[in-house]
Amino acid sequence: MNFKAIILAAGKGTRMKSKHPKVVHKVCGKEMVNHVIDVSKKSGVEDVVVILGHGSETVKTQIPQDSMIAMQTEQLGTGHAVLMAKEYINDNDTIVVLCGDTPLVKEETLKRLFDYHIENQYHATVLTTKVENPTGYGRIIRDENEDLLKIVEQKDANEEEKKAKEINSGIYCFDGKSLRESLDLLDNNNAQGEYYLTDTIKIMRDKGQKVGAYNGSTIEELMGVNSRVELSKAEEIMRRRINESHMVNGVTIIDVNSTYIESDVEIGNDTIVYPGAMLKGNTKIGSSCIIGMNSSITNSTIGDYTEVESSTIIDSTVGENTTVGPYAYLRPKSNIGNNVKIGDFVEVKNATIEDNSKASHLSYIGDAHVGKNVNIGCGVVFVNYDGKNKFKSVVKDGAFVGSNSNLVAPVTVEEKGYIATGSTITDDVPQGALAIARQKQVVKTGWVEKKDSKDNK
Ligand code: UD1
Ligand code: CA
């Protein structure tokens, strides 16, 4: 048996009013279709087939490489969409069908659906829920024994059927062979002139196959996103879920409503996250950290006991017990060690700064390797660019770079080299040497008095 998901994602999403296909719009930093793919895999699905149509070239570049793809060039209905994946549906497969625009469906719900389907040996099981207002949804029609009889679309339902409060989620489990055979029997003799996937239920039942309805979901999970307003509702629900899961794991979030943590971020326990923090992409934060207000951390790793305050960190790593900010900017490929201080208005790019070093204020450190126990004074600039090419500087362990100095790359400061404040360093500094590269001060005693008497003549 092979467990496969077929994910319907061929629709255009006209109401999004977007040049991008609907399913690649993001909820908490992840494309809707990828939420659906990830949750299916977490719940046990081995292979994923995505049905693509509108904007297929774009969607293809966003989904995992191992996804199988079936094209539906004309959207003739949900049944027709699944039919496009026929070659992937094998007799012994268990097939779960989902939609690419329902990003909120939960792993636990899918697992329970699969268990229900397998335990009862159904040929098809539809996931359902009961709602006060079923308008727009397909209705679940049960027989006198409460067994599933059929699903009727809103537009095809009679007055009696419309009253049914149990609705079709659009998520199903099928036995591969039964699904493939019933897809071949679908027609489009209905109010919308479409090939309905929902009709497979009646087809199977009429053949004497066992079909079931599992009322095991909430309406919130099934929310389909069709507009930007719904996208923002989904974002809000997902954000709350993500924040709550971190709190359950021991993270303090001061204000859940103003903390933006994307889906794949990991945070260790006893870390405190302040309002306005945005933790994005593939970010990992250690334990006992403080992520201060308005910090934005993207695709970066932060070690335990580190504090980040009102700073931006992108594609970088920061060690343990280090402080960053306020107002620091770590651009891509910054690699900051343990017990380091990156202070206010310090910008780092493509640079390593090893353990116990400090750049406390107002510096630019680009294309550099800074060793251990180095002090970078206030206002130091690593001059890395001559207008055409970038060059690298090296400052070795124990060196001291005085305030307001320029290191004109390529240049090396050897161990314990000492640079006098205000120097513009263009040549290497040997180990333990002092380099002074500025004009010597001239003092003219009594100069002001002389000037004043001249001016007053
Ligand atoms: C469908 C169900 C309905 C259920 C509802 C839950 C059918 C006939 N009806 O209705 O019972 O209550 O979902 O949300 O299945 N798609 C394609 N190709 C197509 C048609 C649709 O890829 O040819 C995709 C759409 O992009 C969408 C999904 O399938 O993501 C659902 O299609 P949609 O037309 O919205 O179905 P509903 O009318 O909502
Ligand atoms: Ca829909």
Give the number of helices.
10
What is the 3D shape? elongated
User: Looking at this structure, what is the CATH superfamily of the largest domain?
Assistant: Spore Coat Polysaccharide Biosynthesis Protein SpsA, Chain A
Separation of termini?
106 Å
Provide an overview of this structure.
The strands form six sheets. Strands 13, 14, 16, 17, 19, 20, 22, 23, 25, 26, 28, 30, 33 and 36 form a 14-stranded parallel beta sheet that branches. Strands 12-15-18-21-24-27-29-31-34-37-39 form an eleven-stranded parallel beta sheet, covered by helices on one side. The chain has a seven-stranded mixed beta sheet with strand order 5-4-1-6-10-7-11. A hairpin with a 5-residue loop joins strand 8 and strand 9 (148-152). 20% of the residues lie in helices and 30% in strands. The longest helix is centred in the middle third of the chain and has 21 residues, at 228-248. The chain has two domains: 2-215, Spore Coat Polysaccharide Biosynthesis Protein SpsA, Chain A; 250-435, 3 Solenoid (UDP N-Acetylglucosamine Acyltransferase, domain 1), CATH 2.160.10. With 457 residues, the chain is of the alpha/beta class. The protein is elongated, with a radius of gyration of 31 Å. The chain binds uridine-diphosphate-N-acetylglucosamine (UD1) and calcium ion. The site of uridine-diphosphate-N-acetylglucosamine has 26 residues, from strand 1, helix 3 and strand 10.
